[in-house]
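Ticket #4471: structure output looks truncated?

Reporter: J.K.
Steps to reproduce: submitted the chain below (241 residues) through the standard prediction queue, then opened the result file.
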Amino acid sequence: MSGHSKWANIKHKKAATDAKRGKVWTRLIKEIMVAARMGGGDIAANPRLRLAVDKAADANMPKDNVQRAINRGAGGVDGANYEEVRYEGYGIGGAAVVVECMTDNRVRTVAEVRHAFSKFGGNMGSEGSVAFMFQHCGQLLFAPGTNEDKLMEAALEAGAEDVLTDDEGGFEVLCAPHDFAGVKDALEKSGFKAEMAGIIMKPATEIVFAGEEGQKMQKLIDALENLDDVQEVFTSALIED
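Returned output as attached by the reporter:
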């Protein structure tokens, strides 16, 4: 039930995400539109849309913006026809990288992703080259100081698969992707609100980076995350401050 310390990295990522609020909203609007188009505009009947709307609320996106995106997606009008694509590759020191995108132009997107990899010391791989190193799962992160026994009991009762602790006292609850919404709801009803939560690609093993190598790897991740068509970047690199 123990794992590598990661709380500092989690807080850093959250701060970086908050600092890019405008870009975050743009990405969330795309996700809401695609989720509504694929599963309809009823949040209660569309778990993917529910997750996207929850993320929008966490990012302080106005409700009017959210509803417009739902309407555009469900109605299939007034917007680009986005599709999901995934690219894979290697960063510094062989660290695995998965880049999830949403695009209306695959040719543009793949060129931009390939350029970022090559410019910052990485290599873009073929489909399936690194995805097998990751677990597709729901993840909920809780701050140090959370009551471990009560969290573990509530999480396992809610259907979570595991509860991991790090060296700083933070907690990571993992579940199957299709169970994520139910686990999140049950934990919130038990008084546990996650600092960060989502459906992710979790690396089976992590490579720790520090110093100059860590800075190089961070530049690659930042370059990929700054691309307009990129929704998420997952990596086996654990970059220490």
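Triage note (M.O.): checked the attachment and the full token line is present. The mean pLDDT is 87.
Status: closed, working as intended.
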